[in-house]
Amino acid sequence: MKSYLLSLICLLFFCCCGKQPAIEEYLLIPHPVSIEYTSGFTKLKNNLSIAYTEELANEAELLQSYLSVNFSINTKMKPGSESGNIILKLDTSILPDKKEGYIMGIDDKITIKANSVIGIFNGIQTLRQIIQKKEGKWIVQKAIVTDYPAFSWRAFMLDEGRYFKGKEVVFDLLDEMAELKLNVFHWGLTNDQGWRIEIKKYPKLTEIGAYRDSSEIHKFGSNIFDGKPHGGFYTQEEIKEVVEYAAKRHIMVVPEVNMPGHACAAIAAYPWLGTSGKEIKVPTNFGVKYDVFNVADPKVIQFFEDVIDEMIPLFPSPVFHIGGDEVRYNHWNESPYVRSYMTKNGLKAPAELQVYFTNNMSNLLAGKSRRMMGWNEITGDRVHSYQKEESDADAKNIKLAKGTIVHFWKGDTALIRRTIEKGYDVVNSYHNSTYLDYSYEQIPLKKSYFFDPIPEGLTDDQKKRILGLGCQMWGEFIPTVESMNLKIYPRIAAYSEAGWTDKSHKDYNRFLHALEPFLKRWKAKGVKYDVAK
Ligand code: ACM
């Protein structure tokens, strides 16, 4: 009764004064499904307790480290307990059809509930963003947050084939991804200009293929070179470290080994992998090359089997990316060996040979419980003008294997629709909207923000085939971490919201406002970012 009277007096007081206690709205990226604010704050005192069940130990430890590093708040850990200042709790009744969802109640206590560990992790990422400083104290506005993503595939890609960055840079990117709820790290590990993963059976891939003498600078075709050798690669032990670091942050690492094109670094190491038989060096300039793997040679197929065999134990991800983009068919057309292989197998065009080879790889991967993914050239549809010039027909007589994830980057909406109608799942990384190597004039922040992975004109059933989006940090002209960061930040935050927040809840001004603390944090840690408006 006493407390009822007290509440009434408080209410009368606020009404008479014409004042409600101010609500400190959250600055949060990506924006959640719903926030129901209630009045008042909860204070985060030093030595607060975190209660959690044993299966949430990793998440509780991450929360402990965020509170310590970002807010200098010490915590007491209470494993196996359901009572504390912050409570992490698995509960199958919470958003049961939303695997990544969570509900967080902020009252005198903070409770994060989810039906899965990943949901709890996502709730923690939200919590670390909504802690604010008020009159020298760490507080959180009271509210109930209900949240889950619009898309299940929210990827960031780093192409290290062009420039090797090393694991410390990757760890840092993974931390940023985790905070932004990006959940797929698509790791470009091979390209014309570098092979970046140790394969024990083929040591020259990294002894030779990981190094080049010089690098073209400024832009494609500049013909200006820095004159400096560049190289590096990941040992298998380092790969394991990265994958483990990502797994702790619920980020799936999808490796990309490009085949049958973008093959120069591998061919420089082992010329028999190529079709022309010529010895080449790891290229120093960028752009699409003519050297392609000789997929008609059983030894080359064995090579891929061996590479995949060594990689599968390193990458638990159910998805394996085989690239498959920008294959120039000249060397295949010019090779009697390849032409006779095509005739023998009833393949009428090089695009059909590519699909035939890709399906081989798909079978191989399926045998190892992996699903193949590749850039959208793998469907055999013609997307490049140079394919027309070389009169390479579409692959008309052969279909890409079922179950493949088609990574759309080039073509029009009709092509995405056609791909979906053929029954493939699609990740949308349309180049004009998601390529981080493009300038801010080409893809301003606002355009990144409003990228919708679902193109117009799809039926509801077809929409379900769009798994989500990727944003790609292609590596040609980012020799330094600083030059890379300028391309990534702040656009990565816009892609986070494009992947997580339902289109109906997007609000660019709110996003810009919520970006401010990110900009401050990036600046404080020395990350240079580009145009943030
Ligand atoms: C690509 O940009 N070549 C996928």
Q: Name the CATH superfamily classification of the largest domain.
A: Glycosidases
Biggest sheet, open or closed, and with what strands and sense? 8 strands, mixed
Note the total helix count: 19
The count of strands amounts to 20
CATH class membership of the largest domain: Alpha Beta
- Beta-strand proportion: 15-25%
Helical content band: 25-40%
**CATH topology grouping of the largest domain:** TIM Barrel
Overall pLDDT: 94
Poorly predicted spans: 1-8, 10-16
Total domain modules: 2
Multimeric state: single chain
Using the alpha-carbon principal axes, give the shape: elongated
Which architecture of the largest domain does the CATH hierarchy give at level 2?
Answer: Alpha-Beta Barrel
Distinct small molecules? acetamide
Distance between the termini: 52 Å
The value of Rg in angstroms is 26 Å
Quickly give the structural class.
alpha/beta
